[in-house]
Amino acid sequence: MFLFIFLSAQVSVIKIVGKNAEGYKPGTGIFYSLDLPVNQLENNNITLELFDFANFYVKNNFGKEPTAYLSVKGGFRHIFSSEGKTGFFIEPQAGYCWTKSDKSYLNIQGGLALAMVTGYSQEVGFSGNSLVFGFKYEMDLPGSDKQINTIGFRFAFNYSFRGN
User: CA-to-CA distance for 11 and 91, rounded, in angstroms?
Assistant: First the structure.
């Protein structure tokens, strides 16, 4: 039960973009991140994205296999507000990724992951909880044949244990 206290709704709808995008349907993803405030207002946070997983399927038989990625990243979120967690934000991220592009998950390659998230954070309640809506562009660079560029819409509910 303790594990479920820390889980929060963090889902995304993602589309592969760029030169390798042809033939793929939009994918779905799940992610889990933690925010560590660096100031009293909590409008500046170090973010640790403990996992970000997405899976994509092929539209037609273009000779491509289903593909997926898993990434772990760290970043810094700045909310453009002097009053707390409500406002527009920008969050650059960097980390490590693993990608696969075959049905068997046997051909997995790892490498650099870079992302930029931007969106809106809305504080809800009185304890620092927030709803976050955003767009993310991510480049996963494990190798030239497995590179994945994605853009996606994200939704998250962040639960805070701090009390007022």
Answer: 17
